[in-house]
Amino acid sequence: MGKALIACLRLMRVVNSFMVGLAVIVGVFIALPSGSRADPALLLSGFITGFAVSASSMILNDIVDIDIDKINQPDRPLPRGDISERAAWACYVALTLVGALASIPGGWDSLGLVLLAGAAAAAYNTRLKLSGFPGNVIVAFLTSLPFLYAYTLIDASNPAVIIFWAMVFLSVLGREIAKDIADVEGDAIKGGRTIPIVYGRRTAAVVAALFYAGAIILSPSPYLLDLVERPLAYILGVSIVDALLVYSAVILVRSPRKKVALVHKRIVLLAMLIGLITFLVSTL
To answer: What is the average per-residue pLDDT within 72-95?
Structure first.
């Protein structure tokens, strides 16, 4: 039982899912008018919704990809036999229900967006994962969706939310293309049409770098448009994020190999976590 629970937690990608939940909270604080206070209960339900929806999608991804992961990532819980497919399905269903129930306090718009996200995630994992760029776009949209979901939780708006959403969208899109470089062998066996398979790994690395460049170009906008409460904190945090994105893009373009791509995606994940903290601190 303990081994299966640990395996389920690994399938959930706890760090990634935590970031999605945190992104909902950040989105709420960004969207709130200056001087307003957020309802703690609504923040909690938003975090749980984001975390659960992300975690359920991660589990479904591993269930569908079990054969590919036997080649690309044989140390994942399902290929290793740490958890059965039946138990993994149970975790998926439970988290899906938790996400839907937690969204109810936000109203019908929130629940509808959660159901749409679940349907899009299911379509991606079962049909579009090997489609290449269209699949990358869906993942980037779903990952950046917490900022839009935050809009459904409060009756307020702030243009900074759209800018932050765009920055996250572009960063995740680049990271997803880079991840495809690491998964070429398994994806090719399954007939994948990812950018590195169709156009080559170096081309994929350059395309990923271009999307990072887009996020970096947008990064000064909240400061220049006077949309942050703590400009110094924003400048410092976003400078670190931009530096990490530049570094990760450079090492990937120079050597677009599986080993480098795996290191690259961890660096970008760290950059996105720092970015979320920066958005939160600078808008409080």
So the answer is: 85
